[in-house]
Amino acid sequence: MLTGKQIDALTIFNYPDPVLRAVCTPIESYGDSLEALGRRMIELMRAVQGVGLAAPQVGLPWRVFVIAAIEENGQDRIFVNPELSDLSGRAQAEEGCLSLPDVTVPIDRATRATVTACDPTGQRFQMTTEGLLARIWQHENDHLDGRLIIDYMDTQAELVNRKALKALKAKYEAAQQDQR
Ligand code: ZN
After folding, report:
1. Rounded to the nearest whole angstrom, what is the distance from the C-alpha of residue 52 to the centroid of ligand 1?
2. Whether 140 is catalytic
3. 22 with 59: CB under 8 angstroms?
Protein backbone atom coordinates (compact mmCIF):
# COMPACT_ATOMS: atom_id res chain seq x y z
CA MET A 1 0.00 0.00 0.00
CA LEU A 2 0.94 3.66 -0.19
CA THR A 3 2.01 6.29 2.33
CA GLY A 4 -0.11 9.40 2.87
CA LYS A 5 2.47 11.43 0.99
CA GLN A 6 2.32 9.09 -2.02
CA ILE A 7 -1.48 9.22 -1.97
CA ASP A 8 -1.47 13.05 -1.94
CA ALA A 9 0.90 13.07 -4.91
CA LEU A 10 -1.38 10.96 -7.15
CA THR A 11 -2.50 12.51 -10.44
CA ILE A 12 -4.48 11.33 -13.45
CA PHE A 13 -2.51 9.48 -16.15
CA ASN A 14 -3.42 9.99 -19.79
CA TYR A 15 -3.38 7.68 -22.80
CA PRO A 16 -1.07 6.18 -24.06
CA ASP A 17 0.59 5.57 -20.70
CA PRO A 18 1.11 1.77 -20.51
CA VAL A 19 -0.39 1.54 -17.00
CA LEU A 20 -3.79 2.07 -18.65
CA ARG A 21 -3.30 -1.25 -20.47
CA ALA A 22 -2.46 -3.26 -17.36
CA VAL A 23 -4.67 -6.13 -16.29
CA CYS A 24 -5.02 -5.02 -12.69
CA THR A 25 -4.34 -7.21 -9.68
CA PRO A 26 -6.85 -7.84 -6.85
CA ILE A 27 -6.48 -5.99 -3.57
CA GLU A 28 -5.47 -8.28 -0.72
CA SER A 29 -5.13 -5.92 2.25
CA TYR A 30 -7.90 -3.66 3.45
CA GLY A 31 -7.98 -0.74 5.85
CA ASP A 32 -7.09 2.91 6.33
CA SER A 33 -4.55 3.20 3.54
CA LEU A 34 -7.03 1.80 1.00
CA GLU A 35 -9.73 4.13 2.32
CA ALA A 36 -7.33 7.09 1.94
CA LEU A 37 -6.55 6.01 -1.63
CA GLY A 38 -10.27 5.83 -2.45
CA ARG A 39 -10.91 9.26 -0.92
CA ARG A 40 -8.05 10.75 -2.93
CA MET A 41 -9.38 9.17 -6.14
CA ILE A 42 -12.82 10.67 -5.42
CA GLU A 43 -11.16 14.06 -4.89
CA LEU A 44 -9.28 13.81 -8.22
CA MET A 45 -12.47 12.69 -10.02
CA ARG A 46 -14.50 15.53 -8.50
CA ALA A 47 -11.86 18.14 -9.36
CA VAL A 48 -12.41 17.47 -13.06
CA GLN A 49 -16.18 16.85 -12.87
CA GLY A 50 -15.73 13.16 -13.57
CA VAL A 51 -18.32 10.50 -12.74
CA GLY A 52 -15.90 7.60 -12.29
CA LEU A 53 -12.17 6.92 -11.92
CA ALA A 54 -10.24 3.65 -11.86
CA ALA A 55 -6.95 2.99 -10.03
CA PRO A 56 -4.86 2.45 -13.23
CA GLN A 57 -5.87 6.02 -14.16
CA VAL A 58 -3.82 7.24 -11.20
CA GLY A 59 -0.95 4.92 -12.11
CA LEU A 60 -1.90 1.98 -9.87
CA PRO A 61 -2.66 -1.36 -11.58
CA TRP A 62 -5.07 -2.47 -8.83
CA ARG A 63 -8.71 -3.55 -8.92
CA VAL A 64 -10.29 -0.42 -7.42
CA PHE A 65 -12.60 2.19 -8.89
CA VAL A 66 -14.65 5.07 -7.52
CA ILE A 67 -18.00 6.29 -8.76
CA ALA A 68 -19.60 9.68 -8.17
CA ALA A 69 -23.07 10.01 -6.73
CA ILE A 70 -25.16 10.74 -9.82
CA GLU A 71 -28.50 9.69 -8.41
CA GLU A 72 -30.64 11.41 -5.82
CA ASN A 73 -29.61 10.30 -2.33
CA GLY A 74 -26.64 8.52 -3.87
CA GLN A 75 -23.12 8.80 -2.48
CA ASP A 76 -19.61 8.72 -3.86
CA ARG A 77 -18.52 5.14 -3.46
CA ILE A 78 -15.31 3.08 -3.50
CA PHE A 79 -15.45 -0.36 -5.18
CA VAL A 80 -12.67 -2.81 -4.32
CA ASN A 81 -12.26 -6.04 -6.35
CA PRO A 82 -15.57 -5.38 -8.17
CA GLU A 83 -17.25 -8.03 -10.29
CA LEU A 84 -20.09 -7.38 -12.70
CA SER A 85 -22.89 -9.86 -13.30
CA ASP A 86 -26.43 -10.08 -14.66
CA LEU A 87 -25.70 -7.75 -17.56
CA SER A 88 -28.81 -7.30 -19.68
CA GLY A 89 -30.33 -4.93 -22.19
CA ARG A 90 -28.39 -3.02 -24.83
CA ALA A 91 -28.08 0.68 -25.62
CA GLN A 92 -25.61 2.98 -27.30
CA ALA A 93 -24.29 6.27 -25.88
CA GLU A 94 -21.28 8.54 -26.32
CA GLU A 95 -18.59 8.03 -23.70
CA GLY A 96 -15.58 10.07 -22.72
CA CYS A 97 -12.75 9.19 -20.34
CA LEU A 98 -10.65 11.30 -17.97
CA SER A 99 -7.52 9.62 -19.40
CA LEU A 100 -8.54 10.47 -22.98
CA PRO A 101 -9.39 14.20 -23.02
CA ASP A 102 -11.29 15.36 -26.13
CA VAL A 103 -12.05 11.78 -27.22
CA THR A 104 -15.62 10.46 -27.36
CA VAL A 105 -16.76 7.09 -28.65
CA PRO A 106 -20.28 5.72 -29.12
CA ILE A 107 -20.41 2.44 -27.19
CA ASP A 108 -23.01 -0.32 -26.92
CA ARG A 109 -23.36 -1.44 -23.32
CA ALA A 110 -25.79 -3.39 -21.18
CA THR A 111 -28.44 -1.14 -19.66
CA ARG A 112 -28.69 -3.10 -16.45
CA ALA A 113 -25.98 -4.57 -14.24
CA THR A 114 -25.21 -5.96 -10.81
CA VAL A 115 -21.90 -5.27 -9.10
CA THR A 116 -20.45 -7.20 -6.19
CA ALA A 117 -17.48 -5.54 -4.49
CA CYS A 118 -15.86 -4.79 -1.15
CA ASP A 119 -15.59 -1.43 0.56
CA PRO A 120 -12.11 -0.37 1.82
CA THR A 121 -12.67 -2.19 5.12
CA GLY A 122 -13.25 -5.49 3.27
CA GLN A 123 -17.01 -5.51 3.79
CA ARG A 124 -18.76 -7.07 0.79
CA PHE A 125 -21.77 -5.39 -0.82
CA GLN A 126 -23.93 -5.87 -3.89
CA MET A 127 -25.88 -3.33 -5.93
CA THR A 128 -28.08 -3.54 -9.02
CA THR A 129 -28.80 -0.56 -11.24
CA GLU A 130 -29.73 0.53 -14.73
CA GLY A 131 -29.11 3.39 -17.11
CA LEU A 132 -26.17 5.75 -16.79
CA LEU A 133 -24.82 4.26 -13.58
CA ALA A 134 -24.77 0.76 -15.12
CA ARG A 135 -22.82 2.23 -18.04
CA ILE A 136 -20.29 3.90 -15.72
CA TRP A 137 -19.73 0.63 -13.83
CA GLN A 138 -18.98 -1.13 -17.12
CA HIS A 139 -16.64 1.67 -18.25
CA GLU A 140 -14.68 1.62 -14.99
CA ASN A 141 -14.62 -2.18 -14.86
CA ASP A 142 -13.11 -2.15 -18.36
CA HIS A 143 -10.21 -0.06 -17.00
CA LEU A 144 -9.35 -2.85 -14.54
CA ASP A 145 -8.78 -5.17 -17.51
CA GLY A 146 -6.78 -2.59 -19.45
CA ARG A 147 -9.66 -1.87 -21.81
CA LEU A 148 -10.30 1.70 -23.02
CA ILE A 149 -13.11 3.43 -24.92
CA ILE A 150 -10.92 3.63 -28.02
CA ASP A 151 -11.06 -0.19 -28.23
CA TYR A 152 -14.71 0.22 -29.23
CA MET A 153 -14.11 2.66 -32.09
CA ASP A 154 -15.62 1.94 -35.49
CA THR A 155 -14.20 3.53 -38.63
CA GLN A 156 -16.27 6.67 -38.12
CA ALA A 157 -15.11 7.12 -34.50
CA GLU A 158 -11.49 6.53 -35.57
CA LEU A 159 -11.80 9.39 -38.03
CA VAL A 160 -13.47 11.72 -35.53
CA ASN A 161 -10.85 11.04 -32.84
CA ARG A 162 -7.75 10.80 -35.01
CA LYS A 163 -6.44 14.29 -34.20
CA ALA A 164 -7.12 14.09 -30.47
CA LEU A 165 -5.35 10.70 -30.21
CA LYS A 166 -2.39 11.94 -32.20
CA ALA A 167 -2.11 14.96 -29.89
CA LEU A 168 -2.23 12.74 -26.78
CA LYS A 169 0.53 10.51 -28.16
CA ALA A 170 2.70 13.53 -28.99
CA LYS A 171 2.17 14.98 -25.51
CA TYR A 172 3.06 11.66 -23.88
CA GLU A 173 6.22 11.29 -25.98
CA ALA A 174 7.28 14.84 -25.16
CA ALA A 175 6.83 14.16 -21.43
CA GLN A 176 8.93 10.98 -21.74
CA GLN A 177 11.68 12.98 -23.47
CA ASP A 178 11.66 15.52 -20.64
CA GLN A 179 12.15 12.77 -18.09
CA ARG A 180 15.29 11.49 -19.78
ZN1 ZN B 1 -12.23 6.01 -18.33
Report:
1. 7
2. yes
3. no
Distance, C-alpha 84 to centroid of its chain: 14
Distance of alpha carbon 58 from alpha carbon 169, whole angstroms: 18
70-82 pLDDT, tens digit each: 877 789 999 999 9
SS (H, E, C) 127-175: EEEECHHHHHHHHHHHHHCCCCHHHHCCHHHHHHHHHHHHHHHHHHHHH
Domain boundaries, the chain: 4-179
Query: Superfamily for 4-179?
Result: Peptide deformylase (3.90.45.10)
CA of 140 to the centre of ligand 1 (A): 6
- List the catalytic residue out of 71, 140, 158, 173: 140
Q: Is the pTM of this model over 0.90?
A: yes
Mean pLDDT rounded to a whole number for the chain: 96
